[in-house]
Write a structure and sequence with these properties.
Elements: E1 8-11, H1 25-37, E2 42-43, H2 57-69, H3 86-99, E3 104-106, H4 117-131, E4 137-141, H5 143-146, H6 152-161, E5 166-171, H7 176-183, E6 189-192, H8 198-203, E7 208-210, H9 214-229, H10 233-253, H11 255-267, H12 284-291
Parallel strand pairs: 1-2, 1-7, 3-4, 4-5, 5-6
Helix pairs in contact: 2-3, 3-4, 4-6, 9-10, 10-11, 11-12
Length: 299
């Protein structure tokens, strides 16, 4: 049976930290609930935007459990689980799936360079076997960060041979031709990793997008998708222009420190500005300068 996509905007959840750089669970849970109120259909904890590779396996499991304990339905979560070893990725993925998460989002083994599609196929085939029953994966293609990517040919092969396990892909390549090729794979759920190509992607059957800037601009992105679904393409395009401008401003400033600074300013809670090394927090002055160029954030 084909997987049923979550239609709308999905937020790759920012991870707030206390001043000792432990996860600020109160902010984390509160932010997740606010994102659903803003129109997100799901959240993706511990993706790139969530500083996932700076967060340990047990920390991630505890944070996802805290989200569930707060009343968030795990079927509306697609946690990031991609690590370099099959054993660690399988362990984290198994925990998330046992919680009842919709699926997990998995990077390729990014440390190794000049790997072939055959090597990556073998990695994912063995990962699926290690995860075991009801393995459900979204591949995560982000070559600007991971360097190792997932070609459309490999995505097609994995989905064809493991249709119940490899159900989708997040394409954060920034390459529209790549996204379009992925959308041509029958039955594969494809989310662009940005709202910039959203209307073109929706026209080719994408169910929405997974965007970093949904952390601070979810409602307008959700509205674009809603208007398009209602057949009001003119209004959707008008709203999309505003969404694009917001994305480009945040993207230029670096999405993680920038959005955390905006949340610190809007909430009055300075903890929101904290990031884990090697990232550096955005200064208050830089935050104020950015805030002058975008619509005000209201929490």
């Amino acid at each position: 049976m084909a997987a049923r996509p979550l239609r709308g905007v999905i937020a790759p959840l920012l991870t707030p930290f206390d001043n000792d750089l432990s996860i600020a669970t109160d902010l984390y849970v509160g932010h997740a609930h606010w994102l659903f109120e803003q129109g997100c259909v799901a959240i993706a904890p511990f993706g790139t935007t969530g500083e996932a590779l700076s967060v340990g396996i047990d920390e991630r499991i505890a944070a996802i459990r805290a989200l569930m304990d707060s009343g968030i339905d795990p079927s509306r979560m697609i946690p990031g689980t991609g690590l370099t070893s099959i054993a660690d990725t399988a362990r984290l993925s198994r925990a998330c799936l046992d919680f009842g998460c919709n699926a997990v989002m998995t990077l390729p083994p990014f440390y190794f360079k000049a790997v072939t599609d055959e090597g990556l196929y073998e990695y994912f085939a063995r990962l699926i076997a290690a995860i075991g029953d009801n393995a459900r994966l979204f591949l995560y293609h982000i070559p600007p960060i991971a360097v190792v990517g997932i070609s459309p040919a490999l995505a097609r092969r994995l989905h064809t041979e493991f249709p119940a396990q490899v159900v989708g892909i997040k394409d954060s390549s920034g390459d529209w031709d790549n996204t379009r090729a992925l959308l041509d794979i029958d039955g594969l759920i494809v989310y662009p990793g940005s709202e910039l190509p959203l209307l073109d992607a929706l026209a080719l059957g994408a169910p929405g997008c997974i965007s970093a800037t949904a952390n601070t601009n979810a409602a307008p992105i959700a509205r674009v998708i809603e208007l398009y679904g209602q057949g009001d393409e003119s209004s959707a395009r008008s709203m999309h222009e505003k969404v694009r401008d917001y994305r480009l401003a945040i993207q230029e400033a670096a999405p993680i420190p920038a959005q955390k600074r905006l949340l610190a300013m809007a909430s009055g809670d300075e903890r929101w500005a904290n990031v884990r090394p090697p990232l550096i927090a955005m200064s208050p002055d830089a935050g104020r300068e950015l805030a002058e160029r975008i619509p005000p954030l209201v929490l």
